[in-house]
Amino acid sequence: MAHLLLRHRDIPNLDQLDVYVKNGGFEAFKKAVTAMQPDAVTEEVKASGLRGRGGAGFPTGVKWSFIPKNITPHYVVANADESEPGTFKDREIMDFNPYQFLEGLAIASYAVQANLSFVYLRGEFYYLAKKLDACIAEMEKAGYLGDNLFGTGFSLRLRTHLGAGAYICGEETALLESIEGKRGQPRVRPPFPAVVGLYSKPTVINNVETLANLPYIVTNGAAGFRKFGTDKSPGVKIFSLSGNVNKPGNYELPLGATFRELIMGCGGGISDGRKLKGIMPAGASSSIIRVDDTNLDKVLDTTMDYENVQSVGSLLGSASVIIIDDSHSMDWVINKTVHFFKHESCGKCTPCRDGNYWMLHLVERIHEGHASAGDIQLLKTVANQVNGKCLCALGDFSTMAVTSALERFPEDFHVGQA
Amino acid sequence: MAKLINLTINGVAVTVPDGTLVVDAAKKAGIDIPVFCYHPKMEPVGMCRQCLVEIGRPAIDRATGQPALNDDGTPKLQFMPKLETACTNPVSEGMVVLTATEKAKAGQKELLELLLTSHPLDCPICDKGGECPLQNLTVEYGSSQSRFIFDEKQRADKHVHLGELINLDRERCIQCARCIRFQRDVAGDPVLGFYQRGRLTDIVTYSDPGFDSVFSGNTTDICPVGALTTADFRFGARSWELKQSASLCAQCPVGCNVTFNTRREAKSGGVMAIKRVMPRQNEQVNETWICDKGRFAGYHYTEAESRLGLDAASMESALSQAADKLAAAKSDAVFLAGGRLSNEDFYNLKQLAAKLGAKAYLYSPMAGGEYTTAYGLGAGSNLGDLGKDDTVLVVASDLYNEAPVWHLRLKAAAKRGATLIVAAGRATKLDEFASFVVRYAYGDEVETVKGLAGKEKIGDAIKNAANLVVFYGSDGLGLAGTSALAAACADLLNGKTGKVNNGLVGVWNAPNTQGAYELGLAPAADLKSELKGKTVYVIAADPAGDDPALADALKSAKAVIAQDILATATTQMAAVVLPAAAYTEREGTYTTAERRVQRFYLAVPAKAGTRADFAIFAELGKKLGVELEGRSALLVMNKIAAEEKAFAGISYARLAEVTAQWPIVGRGDLYYGGTGYENKLGLGVHLALALTPAPSTSGRGGQMRPKENELVAVPVSKIYDLGVTMAPAKLLGQRIGAAAVGLNPVTAAKLNVENGGKVQVQVNGVTAEAIARFDESISTGVVLIYRSFGIPISEPTSVKIVVAEKA
């Protein structure tokens, strides 16, 4: 099947404007601007059932409809921070199929009537920022960006903005702070960005992959999009597969594909012929799915969409599927995740800042074999103490792997020999 | 008036205005919700997460859009699965807040345990110990034991100087950002910030010199832990040893209410000594803030080594000598008194001078009080009430330097929507917050004010203002200039006199200049010629130290009697010296420039061999055959109230009255508003307006302006200078700096003067060295000379600047 998002795998040199245009590029944007009312675009996207690919799975068209028309200007910001460990899908889109993403951003901008939109990239993506800048320049030259596009009154300019490399800046309000030149730290909500966003103006923030879907939806309509995926989770999704599999990488599958198709089919099975022990479907923020002889088939046959992953005790999130085989102890795994969160905690709120620091000491003690019986229980307590009290969702996410590992893999946590 | 919202908090029914935050609603109902990052004077940020509570809101039936009901007909409540922060949630109708359920209490306790994982256990050596929100809230809401292993605490620097005034202990900091937000949002001096992230998050200053703000001390009051402490109180005393004395700051005409913390200590010979200055809440004057001049210079001059004192016999003989000289001089005596005296002092002085038929003058670099007494702020005025539709005009004053708390309050008024117009001969810090900035050439002050009404937008803002407050100062002006300027400003207020939140305010340089004017004193137009051959009685002023020309004039006097708390150039040339008690050592009242009479109380016993000024006058009166009240300041005030119309109805009892203030600050609530003190001893009383008819406002304009190839020096003020009440403040030495002159680079270029270079200033018959500082905002040909830096300057005058010989 031809790819919808990773089209560059089917069409060589798709990152060149002429190639992209030759293959139908910017037809959707032109159609939207010249033949559709902005609200009609929003309605089409609503009807398509497209849900945010950054992790939360919120319906994209609904998000756009929150933008108040009486407060201007509006902004669209593409979240290209992609900082969840295990996620590397947006990078591939921007590197090899950049115009499709930028066209999607342009369509979104038209739908909410934004005349200036931003691409926010993590600091490590400086080479992509350079590439996108070049693409934007090409688009301006070719008349796809600028004033009075396609002879209409609609004008649009795009800008890239590089962060300084912080996980928290993937959180949308921290991202906005960062664009404004402030410390990347989450804001209190409400007000939500749809009303008080970038520079205190109504702002839509969409993930790169979400935006890359838009040209297809505009061209083929909601019905065309709904040919893929499930009723509640329509469309295709790029799954970033990593960990103990033979063929890690990005795989574009319809939502509702099973773990088996991804791991055993695309990924070629578990490496070194080992057994599957755990799956982290949403990167480091995942609750870890326990896989053993009793539930192997159930898990592998679980469909990957926004609803069903819950049935095996986790969430789809950004679909950064990390595979853990039976050579790994879960105390090692959460030592890694807590290390990450302790390092990346922005420090704005107490539970995340101090909780991850504390948890790190506990998991290190456990991992190094110095834990007392109380430490394992205490780790659980501290994780619960943090969860649900943080300023932003990322703080709460930092405890997911810890809580699930302790609960589902108790045999991996040992009291040390004194 | 905002809509009122009904809700219950822990079952208590509460009604508060729409928009009130849950945490404030609870406070108003007397229910404590623990907070660290939240402060009632700042926007909520929800960072510390300490204020977790359960919040239920009436559920809405989706089908009908009506409130959903339980079976018994009561409204169905919807609680969030998570605890919510009381500081970020505004109240809503029918809301049910539960702050003390098992779930909420567990959340608060867990949060505190998390906070304490990063906090050292050094309370016994911490200056905040005993008045520390973290300590108090831990006792109230926390656990007595931590499950965190002490050895795993993160170590951090404990002695970081954010500047020479404020110390940071990085281990104690709980990253609440109150200090950062205060500096950014309240003070408008964003010189603090966070550095690093996560557990490494640090407070840093990015100004040079460090923590360069005149409001820095306030951050130590609102710091909820001992992370920020002041250098002057460092290891000075334990908070529970300290007594509190209500007082006023005497460094400027704002009249900030302060509390002196005192204790008896061996170092002071077993008598009470002042250990620190803390703000005392007066929402109509200084809210809960004071500036660093008040905090760090504050009372220090009253403890200077140069304090005067005489033993009983010498005092008696000095009084007799003074009385003899005055009796001999009679109407040939001239009284010259500075604005540091209290209302009671001025009153007795006036009576004494009247008895002798002598002239009594106010010693002040600024005039115009005859206008501020007639056009001053109406009773009940409060800068904190100014907002939308109101206009504030500031002319010829750099409030940040001259009256910092007004700067802060006008900035807030502008934020609330007031139109702030700043007219000055140079850029000032207030410009940033102004709606309109008017820049004039020095000398054009009066014309500028007269022209404002004719300007399109500014004129409308002045004409259509619901309320209009005009501040005028002495930036670049002397007596004649300020007098004319006051008249021009008063013109703008015609028809608004006596109205609440309307009026003219003089930015004086002393705490009670307004009081002197209210009691009928005024500066002499030509002081030098007034002194020649007279018996001059100088009180609380140092003309000889300020200006060699005045020193010469005093030399030409028949005799000089000097009365002061400190030895000065004037006391040194006096035939008789009368040592006075400092205001910290006695009772009295000051009248602020906003025309509010406020009481200060005795904080420490009077230095041996001194007496209160009003008592000295009474003592002299006795010898000169005039009966003056000298027993207590209270009794003097009773006489003032009986005889001075503006003071009618004022008594010490009334001055000590307090009404409820918001936000609630004070000892039991220091976690909420900070360690500033609540006001238990008086908010003060506004004076009635002078009943004298409006004075003629045909003030003369046309101040001195430099001609081609001519330089004109004008006097300006800097917050930290070498004046008698500043110089003894050792801690501020670095900030005072050297004498400087300001000039436009264009002017400087003609003189070959470099920025930062040394120059010789020849002015008023004196040659002095100074550092040249460029300021592009001032007109060419003008040289700014800072007052009280050793270069005499009282009026605009011609000046010569030459590059100093390079060493």
How would you summarize this macromolecular structure in one to three sentences?
The complex is a heterodimer of chains A (about 425) and B (about 800). Chain A is α/β, with parallel strands linked by helices and about 425 residues long.
Give a written overview of the molecule:
The complex is a heterodimer of chains A (418) and B (807). Chain A has helices spanning 17-22, 27-35, 38-48, 60-65, 89-96, 98-111, 126-142, 172-179, 208-212, 214-225, 259-266, 296-300, 330-344, 350-367, 373-386, 393-397, 400-408, and strands at 74-80, 114-121, 157-162, 203-207, 236-243, 249-254, 276-280, 289-290, 320-325. With 418 residues, chain A is of the alpha/beta class. In chain A, the strands form 2 sheets. Chain A has a 5-stranded mixed beta sheet with strand order 6-5-9-7-8, sandwiched between helices. In chain A, strand 7 (276-280) and strand 8 form a beta hairpin. The longest helix of chain A has 18 residues, at 350-367. The mean pLDDT of chain A is 96. In chain B, the strands form 8 sheets. In chain B, strands 1, 2, 3, 4, 5 and 6 form a 6-stranded mixed beta sheet that branches. In chain B, strands 28-32-29-31-30-33 form a 6-stranded mixed barrel. Among the domains of chain B are: 4-100, Ubiquitin-like (UB roll), CATH 3.10.20.740; 112-230, Alpha-Beta Plaits (2-Layer Sandwich); 369-509, Dimethylsulfoxide Reductase, domain 2, CATH 3.40.228.10; 712-805, Barwin-like endoglucanases, CATH 2.40.40.20. The radius of gyration of chain B is 28 Å and the shape is globular. Chain B is α/β, with parallel strands linked by helices and 807 residues long. Chain A binds chain B through residues 166, 168, 183, 188, 342-351, 353-358, 361, 374, 378, 381, 385-386, 388-391, and chain B through 44-50, 52, 81-83, 88, 107, 110-111, 113-115, 117-118, 147-149, 152, 154, 174-175, 193-194, 196-201.
